[in-house]
């Protein structure tokens, strides 16, 4: 394995865990200690396969805001996913990377006028709204838009709540449909978001039921209500697989009850963290340390300063309520543990990643690995104090990538979802290539 260029992917002969891949990379780095991510693209593929297996009726539209990494967007475009974009910038990025306008939902209920105009120019027709002023604004700018009415949910069990900012309640939703009919705007469906990091499947079930009521009302008014968008909020960290299966089962059952497949109704979702959280492991380096004696216990305690912090990748500590767990990669004694705090590299006292944890003693130059760092990290990071944050390095086993390509390339796009899983399961995985770096082959990602 060599040091690699931006955005290229290490196609490996063997299967590696993120930890093994990081260790391999560190061994090559010697004096270079910049923080980096090991991005496991097989994990992203497997998430997609699991999604379409467990919720075959629900077409995922990846929420780009969660992590707008171009290789993730390209891969998901290749695998047939749609995209939830929140702005002109995201729409442009996704389209520049090869996704067509009909695979995009502009899912921001309150949009800048010029961005609505841009959506019209590039042919993105489907967009959400949740208030009358937005409806009137879209009417003026883009009267042919296909509108999706976002309703409010009970997101009290979510880690990040949105209901205080977005979503029409049931009464308001009915009034908005009346208004849309009066001004001749086209409403095609209902969307909701149960909050990011939603902890109960009941939130989805209740919201699906409410959406049904609003869709019924819309149908009565003469709208062709055929799109249900069940939003994001699905868990993505390693270890949440059973919970995702539970949500999927509850969603499928609620859909069966309230939205039986009549060949016309289309169900989509806007998963963000589900796709990327577990695929990203961050490697940071200990750049400084401070040893102290605890005045109460007399024990040694430590402060470590690492080269990525809350202004960079760890902004998730502030914005996403994340509690990162350090995995130390040190050659020192792993058995004895000390009270420790871990700090980012900026001059700000707020830049603290862990206030008090018990970990082995580290030395300057040791590496710390942080798992489940793909969601709401890079996308909101800045280079405060002129300090870089983790740069992604992608990896995927050659045999896996070959099998994905074989499965997806030979199948006409509209049949892919059903057949690719079978093909992947029966693939012939040969290990013939040397470890090497291969760039994406751009033709692979051009839509048919
Ligand atoms: N859709 C919308 C409109 C959102 O605002 C968000 C997150 O902010 C998402 C989807 C993605 O949510 P999650 O990452 O929890 O799946």
UniProtKB/TrEMBL annotation:
Where are the N6-(pyridoxal phosphate)lysine modifications?
65
Keywords in alphabetical order, please: Lyase, Polyamine biosynthesis, Pyridoxal phosphate
User: Which cofactor is recorded for it?
Assistant: pyridoxal 5'-phosphate
Q: In which pathway does it act?
A: Amine and polyamine biosynthesis; putrescine biosynthesis via L-ornithine pathway; putrescine from L-ornithine: step 1/1
E.C. no: 4.1.1.17
Mind telling me which GO cellular component terms the entry cites?
A: cytoplasm
Q: Which InterPro entries match?
A: Ala_racemase/Decarboxylase_C, De-COase2_N, De-COase2_pyr-phos_BS, Orn/DAP/Arg_de-COase, Orn_de-COase, PLP-binding_barrel
Ranges for domain Orn/DAP/Arg decarboxylase 2 N-terminal: 42-277
Task: List the GO molecular function terms.
Answer: ornithine decarboxylase activity
Gene Ontology biological process = putrescine biosynthetic process from arginine, via ornithine
Report the active site residues. 347
Task: Summarize the protein's role.
Answer: Catalyzes the first and rate-limiting step of polyamine biosynthesis that converts ornithine into putrescine, which is the precursor for the polyamines, spermidine and spermine. Polyamines are essential for cell proliferation and are implicated in cellular processes, ranging from DNA replication to apoptosis.
Family as reported in the entry's similarity comment:
Belongs to the Orn/Lys/Arg decarboxylase class-II family.
Assembly and oligomerization: Homodimer. Only the dimer is catalytically active, as the active sites are constructed of residues from both monomers.
Q: What is this protein called?
A: ornithine decarboxylase
- Organism, per UniProt? Rotaria magnacalcarata
* Biological classification of the source: Eukaryota, Metazoa, Spiralia, Gnathifera, Rotifera
């Amino acid at each position: 394995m060599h040091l690699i260029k931006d955005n290229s992917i290490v196609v490996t002969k063997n299967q590696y865990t993120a930890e093994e891949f990081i260790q391999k990379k560190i061994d090559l780095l010697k004096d270079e200690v910049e923080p980096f991510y090991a991005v496991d693209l097989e994990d992203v593929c497997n998430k997609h396969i699991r999604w379409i297996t467990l919720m075959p009726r629900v077409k995922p539209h990846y929420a780009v805001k969660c992590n707008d990494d171009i290789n993730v967007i390209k891969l998901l475009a290749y695998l047939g996913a749609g995209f939830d974009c929140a702005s002109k910038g995201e729409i442009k990025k996704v389209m520049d990377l090869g996704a067509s306008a009909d695979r995009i939902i502009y899912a921001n209920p309150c949009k800048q006028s010029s961005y609505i105009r841009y959506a019209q120019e590039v042919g993105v027709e489907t967009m959400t709204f949740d208030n009358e002023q937005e409806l009137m604004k879209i009417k003026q700018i883009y009267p042919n838009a296909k509108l999706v009415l976002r309703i409010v949910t009970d997101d009290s069990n979510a880690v990040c709540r949105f209901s205080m900012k977005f979503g029409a309640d049931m009464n308001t939703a009915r009034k908005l449909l009346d208004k849309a009919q009066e001004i001749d705007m086209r409403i095609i469906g209902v969307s909701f978001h149960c909050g990011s990091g939603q902890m109960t499947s009941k939130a989805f079930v209740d919201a699906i039921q409410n959406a049904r009521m609003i869709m019924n009302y819309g149908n009565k008014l003469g709208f062709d209500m055929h799109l249900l968008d069940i939003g994001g909020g699905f868990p993505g960290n390693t270890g949440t697989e059973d919970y995702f299966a539970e949500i999927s089962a509850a969603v499928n059952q609620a859909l069966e009850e309230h939205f039986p497949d009549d060949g016309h109704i289309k169900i989509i979702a806007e998963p963000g963290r589900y796709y990327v959280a577990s695929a990203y492991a961050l490697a940071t380096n200990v750049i400084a340390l401070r040893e102290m004696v605890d005045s109460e216990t007399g024990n040694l305690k430590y402060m470590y300063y690492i080269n990525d912090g809350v202004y960079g990748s760890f902004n998730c500590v502030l914005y996403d309520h994340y509690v990162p767990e350090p995995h130390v990669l040190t050659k020192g004694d792993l058995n004895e543990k000390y009270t420790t705090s871990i700090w980012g590299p900026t001059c700000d006292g707020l830049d603290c990643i862990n206030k008090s944890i018990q970990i082995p003693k580290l030395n300057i130059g040791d590496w710390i690995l942080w798992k489940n760092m793909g969601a709401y990290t890079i996308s909101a990071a800045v280079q405060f104090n002129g300090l870089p944050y983790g740069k992604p390095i992608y990896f995927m086993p050659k045999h896996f990538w070959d099998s994905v390509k074989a499965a997806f390339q030979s199948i006409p796009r509209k049949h892919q979802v059903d057949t690719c899983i079978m093909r992947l399961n029966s693939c012939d995985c040969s290990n013939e290539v040397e470890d090497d770096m291969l760039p994406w082959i751009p033709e692979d990602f051009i839509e048919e």
